[in-house]
What we know:
Helix content is 32%, strand content 26%. By secondary structure, it is of the alpha+beta class. Strand 15 (249-250) and strand 16 form a beta hairpin. The two termini are 22 Å apart.
Amino acid sequence: MCGIIGIYDDKDVSKKLFFGLSCLQHRGQESAGMSLADGDQIIRKKGMGLVTDVYNEEILEELPGHIGIGHVRYSTAGGSHEFNTQPLMAFFKNTTMSLAHNGNLINYQILRSRLEEEGMMFQTTIDSEVILYLISRYNEGDIVEAVKKTMEMIQGAYAVVLLLEDKLVAFRDPYGIRPLVLGKLHDGGSIVASENAPIDIIGGDFIRNIEPGEIVVIDEEGLHSYEGMGKGRKHCVFEYVYFARNDATLDGVNSYNFRRRSGEVLYDEAPVDVDLVVAVPDSGIPSAIGYSQASGIPLAEGLVKNRYMGRTFIKPSQEEREMAVKLKLNPLSHVVKGKSIVLLDDSIVRGTTSANLIQRLRDAGAREVHMRITSPPVMNPCYYGIDTPSRINLIAANFSVQEIEEKIGADSLKFISEEGMVKASKLLGRDDLCMACFNGDYPVDPIVL
Ligand code: SF4
């Protein structure tokens, strides 16, 4: 999971990129970067850490350019190293290009080996460099043709922003697995981003989603769209369950509404008679609201969140993850003491977070702790850019729901059904969603070497 943004305007855009990237910070906290073009050349500034660690007022002032792209990263392919930070840059055939990518190529190793055999040397260990290399290689002056040829080669999930000296290009994989939206800024500029929050915050209007397989080029002549590479729609359902901000509306579905409706559906599917509904903040809050509204059981804040901690799921190591959970959430004993509660959370991946939370709620005096999960059991790894662990570490791939209930120490445990998730999305049908980590039905067959 990463966040990407691209802006084409008639004045310097570094500050807009800064604010836009800050809105996308939840999608990756390991590194941040931006590249800017002024019509003649491209400059780039990137580094490890949060957006605010990499940039300050002075640095942004020294980054001229009216076209720009930006990236916040968490690592899936390749490791968490400075040399893997994005945007990437390439100098080839008298052209400079810079690229930022969200997603994961499933045939990356095959393509990279082939290119290495031809003598290509890589500067990173990430799949995104293969995309940039192929576009550079195919670029004979027609960037759309170069992107089309590249899209014929690469397989998997990708939302990409590409910067040339005088234009911004954005494209999305043929199934639209990763999100990419298009907006118009109030000052006349154009913007593309992983979610719509940067459009709202910078000041603009959401226009539409970039369609699966669509290529968009924005230059001084305006915006041009090239379609025809799409193969359907398989939007990652986990975006709605967990990753995207509550204010994100992606492919027509608003994350907040999805999460609230998931809570309502869960009450229909798995009611429980308790004193309080409690959310695991933040993504559990809307579903707890939905569960509370559907059941009439009062909603209470039973966990206090330290908002200065990063998101636990996207920390690279297990040790860091466990420490982050403890630092991040603390039970409110005067709320939960002596009460039976139903705890709403978005997913159970390894099970360690849930076990830890339930134990600490009991230590704080909760009499009963029931868990309701707004996604089905995660049984399969994701090959499209989400850092789910291999099967051996996925608790649901190795244990039944009953066994997980015992392992995490819940009084009862229920997951939403796949049909329930489809119902919660309302606008998208089962065929429009990737749910492979739950049901193993991968839209693009994984290549495991
Ligand atoms: S496998 Fe799961 S996490 Fe990966 S893209 Fe599909 S729904 Fe999203």
